[in-house]
Amino acid sequence: MTTELLTERRDAVLVMTLSGPATRNTLSPQVYAAGIESLNMAESDPSVAAVIVTGAGGHFCGGGDLQRLSHNRQQDPSQQAANIDAFHQWIEALRAFPKPVIAAVEGVAAGGGLSVTLACDLIVAADNARFVSAYSKVGLSTDGGASWHLARQLPRGVALQWLWTGGDATTQQMQQWGLVHQIEPAGTVLTAALALADTLAKTPANVLASLKELVNDAPQAPLSEHLAAEKRHFLVNLMRPEAGEAIARFLQRKKG
Questions:
Q1: What CA–CA distance (Å, rounded) separates 231 from 117?
Q2: Cα–Cα distance measured from residue 234 to residue 183, given in angstroms and rounded to the nearest whole number
Q3: What pTM value is reported for the model?
Q4: Which end of the chain is more exposed for a tag (fewer CB within 10 A), N or C?
Q5: What's the confidence (pLDDT) of residue 256?
Q6: Are the beta carbons of 105 and 129 closer than 8 angstroms?
Q7: How many CB atoms lie within 10 A of CB 108?
Q8: 4 strand-pairing partners
Q9: CA-wise closest residue to 204 among 50, 76, 82, 51
Q10: Distance separating the N- and C-terminal Cα atoms of the chain
């Protein structure tokens, strides 16, 4: 059965659930289209403060559907190229989304599922979760930006060894690499991710969006350009009512 993307509102948080437990929530074109549509709606809805991406049935995502890939090997390459383009559009949408995106990972995140977690802003993972690069095990190179993210977050040799060998990393190893940001007992990850999202929602949405944009753009920008961008964001945020109210509260507490 094809994996679907289910959406549910939990107060100010939109939860997007990869749902195809029989195949460990393997990715599908339907997921990509629904993911982009859901993010577009969430971006335009001021009542949505954050998004969580998770998986059903005790796993995050087993990656690409090998049955579909086997079928596509018999077709014109343009068919698979269109599927990859759709996947990459979703990955780019996750990266560019101006509100926090949290991956809540139980069980396995493999192949394309690993790519999805790396595209999220923060990863909350179960203490027994596994992160598997997987691609090389089936004669493939990466898609979904896995090599892009890993090359920027890990030493070159570590990234290459892991990708070349189709490595299998524990949550604890991922945290040591700086890729997992919070570890929770198995079965409690979504609850913990919701609590984290609620905490982030206390920060003004414009500030979260500015900081995400600045951090996303920083690796490609010379310092002078980045300082100019910081100044631009700072001035816009300073003049917003949220800053006026927060500064006044801080000064009042200091007086007390």
A1: 31
A2: 33
A3: 0.94
A4: C
A5: 65
A6: yes
A7: 23
A8: 19
A9: 50
A10: 61
Packing angle of the helix pair 112-119, 77-96 (nearest 10 deg): 30
DSSP 198-240: HHHTTS-HHHHHHHHHHHHHGGGS-HHHHHHHHHHHHHHHHTS
Residues in the chain: 256
Distance (Å, whole) CA 148 – CA 41: 27
DSSP class of 121: S
Angstrom distance (rounded) from CA 157 to CA 178? 16
User: pLDDT in tens for each of the 256 residues of the chain?
Assistant: 789 999 999 999 999 999 998 999 999 999 999 999 999 999 999 999 999 999 999 999 998 877 877 887 887 788 888 889 999 999 999 999 999 999 999 999 999 999 999 999 999 999 999 999 989 998 999 999 999 999 999 999 999 999 999 989 999 999 999 999 999 999 999 999 999 999 999 999 999 999 999 999 999 999 999 999 999 999 999 999 999 999 999 999 877 6
User: Helices 112-119 and 146-153: crossing angle, nearest 10°?
Assistant: 50
Scanning the structure block, which residue is given the tokens 């049955």?
A: 67
For residues 219 and 143, what is the distance between their CA atoms, to the nearest angstrom? Answer: 21
Buried b (16+ CB within 10 A) or exposed e, 207-233: ebbbebebeeeeeeeeeeeeeebeeeb
